[in-house]
Amino acid sequence: MLVIGPNGAGKTNLLEALHLGSQGFSSRTRAEQQAVRFGERAARVRLSGDEDGAGFETQVDLGGDEGKRVLLNGAPVQSAEELRLRLAALVFSPDRLAVVKGGPLVRRTYFDRMLGRVFPARAGLPAEYGRTLAQRNAALRRSAAGASTPDAVRPWTERLAELGTELDRERAALVSLLATEFALRAEMLGLEAAIAYENRGLRAEELEERLTRDLERGTTGTGPHLRDVSMSAGGRDLRRYGSQGEQRAAVLALVLAEATVLGERRGSPPLLLLDDVFSELDERRRAGLLDAIPAGAQALVTATEADVLPAAAPAPDLLVRVSPGAAERA
């Protein structure tokens, strides 16, 4: 599906609505009241579709007297996570370049969210590790202030080591699962790229050895909360030495690699929401991008004009023209 229209016409709003309706949260902002039209108190997104032969309907309400409400087939769900377990959607937008251009925290957060999509049973692991880390840091600060003894830190040390080892192992498994598809999709986009993550684990002895330093600083100085996912092209760190085009291709390759892996694990590919995806790609790389979309995937692509597609590409199954306040079949 190709969605065209001038800048500012609402193409990204349409994409955001599809993400909100399928995932239960905005792809653009955590302050979801910002997704409500100016001058209005509330917004509603309704989607209907088919997945593996079974129909579904979703409804997401924002604002109003009841606040946020998410319905799946007419029944309320307890959290957006429940909706995401049923429906899968991945988004690319220009701000996703932060996955490459940003610091390690951005990549850790991105891959930990991906961990929950690819391994649903492990979705809560990053948050559990984060809570235990916060408890250990609080115990360190209490001990340093004389409100308790270093012995009070030890139970949190043992639990943190256990969870940190699990989290490192799961992250490494995720990156290993993605690595081949990522390299293949990047190659289709004209980039020789790789991702890697070192599974170091976290031993309680390691934490005990640096206890004095941790007490002085009031924070835990080693563990998965300080690790990074390496993203490189031709042996060069993409964050430091990648061009804008290379960084863009790497993020696209990452989204398409995850889409492929999710399709294999779930039995059906996710919905792909690709915003302004052809920008800064030449004709050959645009063709490579279309080839890199997993077979059978439903993809919504936004652009300013229909001629953005490569000359040899087949016509889109659906062409939609967006103007302020309206979206019509072109």
List low-confidence stretches: none
Give the radius of gyration: 22 Å
Q: What's the architecture of one domain, going by CATH?
A: 3-Layer(aba) Sandwich
In sequence order, what are the helices and strands, one letter per element?
EHEEEEHEHHHHEHHEEHHEHEEE
Lateral arrangement of strands in the main beta sheet: 6-10-11-1-12-13
The pLDDT mean sits at: 93
DSSP helix fraction: 40-55%
Give the amount of beta strand, in percent. 15-25%
Task: Compute the separation of the termini in Å.
Answer: 11 Å
Please state the overall shape, judged from the principal axes of the Cα atoms. globular
* CATH topology (fold) name of one domain: Rossmann fold
- State the major sheet: 6 strands, mixed
How many distinct beta strands? 13
Number of helical elements: 11
Structural class: alpha/beta
Highest-level CATH class of one domain: Alpha Beta
Looking at this structure, what is the CATH superfamily of one domain? P-loop containing nucleotide triphosphate hydrolases
